[in-house]
Amino acid sequence: MNKINFAELFPDNRHEGDTTLRQAQLVLLRMFKIIDYICRKHHIKYWMCSGTLLGAVRHKGFIPWDDDLDICMPREDFERFVKIAVEEFPSDMLLQTRETDPNYRYLPLPCKVRDKKSFVLTPGYMDEKSEKGLYIDVFTIDRYHTNPVMFRLEKAIKTYNTFICKCLDSVDFKDESFIRKILSYFHPLFHFLVLQYMKSAKKIIKRNQQLGTNCRIGHGFDTIWKRYFTYKDIFPLSELTFEDATFYAPHSPDVYLSTLYGPDYMTPLPESKRIFHAQVIKPIL
User: Kind and range of the H or E element at 246?
Assistant: First the structure.
């Protein structure tokens, strides 16, 4: 297979940023363009989500204080993406999964795309030996039933996963409260329970793929996020400008953002409530 010359297609322009945050955003934007290129080439579906989608709609690019990017992929597309990206990513990018980085241990998020020429620290994961470059989060998306009884059951299953994952995370935040410190002693138990849950979830995921388009769309059974949409809210995908390029977005960005942030999502948060994900960012090593 001939390697794509991404250095020529999407030059690394992080040095052009006039602040550390802007340099980080330029790193993320380049990675996003490469992901988009590979997905379009192989007909892999994805869409901007969370603050990335909000930035596209409200700011035509990054939310001015944002330091990460988020995209969603349907399960079947995600499974193709992780196989293809390993082969086609340039050498300065890493597809970070538990298979490609044995030290990556955050179970509820199966994949990040990392830049190898930068460094970022996020709360709770200071001592991890995993790769720590600037990253794009890749969220899996699964199908859920439209039948109210089945859907309530599926949400209950997800609630259980969220609970045990939060307990599992206590080991990384044990100094924040007495309860977290107590829970941290049971880390091996919660780790076992999460792994067992994920084995069971695979069966549900496979079964629900048979729902086709007669379904709800939501974050994966193996994640902790609980956001659900109708199929027509997401598909067919639309496209939105983000910075100097165009990327895929849900069919109805307004419904998506209203669900996540409420009807006033176009009004920026007051400065006191703006969230920075990282504690330390070094876009240039």
Answer: strand 245-249
User: Considering Cα of 54, then 230, then 96, then 277, what sign does the dihedral take?
Assistant: positive
Total-model pTM: 0.92
- Cα 200 to Cα 31: distance, rounded to the nearest angstrom: 33
| Contact between 242 and 61 (Cβ < 8 Å) | yes
Distance CA 252, CA 7 (A): 34
User: Tens-of-pLDDT digits for all 285 residues of the chain?
Assistant: 567 899 999 999 999 999 999 999 999 999 999 999 999 999 999 999 999 999 999 999 999 999 989 999 999 999 999 999 999 999 999 999 989 998 888 888 889 999 999 999 876 665 568 888 999 999 999 999 999 999 999 999 999 999 999 999 898 888 889 999 999 999 999 999 999 999 999 999 999 999 999 999 999 999 999 999 999 999 999 999 999 999 999 999 999 999 999 999 999 888 877 777 666 889 886
